[in-house]
Amino acid sequence: MVTPELSQSKSQFSPMAKSSVRTKPSSCFSDGSLYLGAALLAFLLVWSLWSYALSHNFDPKTSAKSVANTHAHECVQENPEVNLHYDPPDQTFYDDQELSYSIEKPIKNWDEKRKEWLKHHPSFAPGARDRVVLVTGSQPKPCKNPIGDHLLLRFFKNKVDYCRIHGYDIFYNNVLLHPKMHSYWAKLPVVKAAMLAHPEAEWIWWVDSDAMFTDMEYKLPLQRYDYKKHNLIVHGWEKLIYEKKSWTALNAGVFLIRNCQWSMDFMEKWSSMGPMSSEYEKWGEIQRSVFKDKLFPESDDQSGLTYLLYKDKSLTEKIYLEGEYYFEGYWADILPTYDNITEKYTELEKEDGKLRRRHAEKVSEQYGVFREPHLREAGNGKGSWRRPFITHFTGCQPCSGDHNQMYEGETCWTGMVKALNFADNQVLRKYGFVHPDLLDSNTVTETSFDYPDDGPW
């Protein structure tokens, strides 16, 4: 803070020349005027200080401290922004020639290295516990499916919209960071590299390219996971792991992992089941022997994670299976609910003017909080009329077009368009427009002032 400079000019006084014609009475009158003027100034000064004391509980003993605190409050922002232009010359883990970003080479003492980096970059320390970097990606080549690249672009836009609204960073990768770790295994090398590239972030959030946010207001409940010191969050159910022994007991297409040494060690163990391992074929056989519903022979990341949990139940202390809300949800179950959800949310906004008030996109989270009391009876997960947090188009493969044969490809592509427009309406609303038809991406209408109370519904 720049304080104004206070300058004082020295008053120069010259002795008054005595006049030979000045009489004694006039001299006394002049001295009396000076005395009264000085007394009046003194009275005004005392009165001002007394008035200030009454209005501010003035205490002479703490006045200096109060002034200091006032200046400190003016100079220090309540939520200072990170300094993106400051990287001191101090040695950090980045200066270690042995540092490798490769998934094959382990990282040691990562917690200490992150802590040291934050020490040298103090502007990143406030809020570090809740800082998230979302990571996603796709293949390096153009899609075989004619509309695949267009769909992936819209999926990516959806993630960018969500991150912008909630203040998260995002990294999109479209190259293999390890030549052997392809397909579903490609995510692990990217996640490790993201941890090293973002020591300021506590969480790395992997979201598959075919998963999208369909509740743009909902924010990750990080305190829910931090409270019990969980380090890895995936959507899943213990019963399906330990009783049913199903490889679909969880979904590894969306996971939240803490940026810490435990995660580095766990990913090393997890990735050892992948194609970079000399025992890759063996791991495929082991997985199929345990999970009878696994149809294909290759070892995959989802079966690998499920197997690790199955063999060591103590891992549930660090790995949390989220099943209370759609941390990710199966699209075929969710898609038919969009129309009913839209109607329910429209009714809520018609009843509560606070929810339909126009507002800046930057304050969207507040309106999500306003909406929560109205959603207490909505339920969560399957059968709920709450917006699903993430809709995941598992089995559709928009880029290759090699969809699961249990449903037609056209069902996938039409479903994606509907889901994308369902989410996009929540974003466009802040810009004054909506898609009136979720199956028509080309058409939008301008929202009226009190939309949707006097809208087209």
TrEMBL record:
Enumerate the transmembrane spans: 34-53
Record's keyword annotation contains Zinc: no
What coarse category fits the chief subcellular location reported for this protein?
Golgi
Could you give a GO molecular-function term held by this entry?
galactosyltransferase activity
Q: Topology relative to the membrane, per the entry? A: Single-pass type II membrane protein
The cross-references to Gene3D superfamilies, in alphabetical order and at most eight, read: Spore Coat Polysaccharide Biosynthesis Protein SpsA, Chain A (3.90.550.10)
Q: Where in the cell is it found?
A: Golgi apparatus membrane
Q: Name one GO cellular component term.
A: endosome
Tell me any Pfam family this protein matches: Glyco_transf_34
* Matches recorded under InterPro entries: Glyco_trans_34, Nucleotide-diphossugar_trans
Tell me the domain of life. Eukaryota
Region (Disordered) location: 1-24
Residue spans of biased composition, Polar residues class: 1-14
Give UniProt keywords alphabetically: Glycoprotein, Glycosyltransferase, Golgi apparatus, Membrane, Signal-anchor, Transferase, Transmembrane, Transmembrane helix
The record's family statement is:
Belongs to the glycosyltransferase 34 family.
The protein depicted here goes by the name Glycosyltransferase 7
Origin organism is: Populus euphratica (Euphrates poplar)
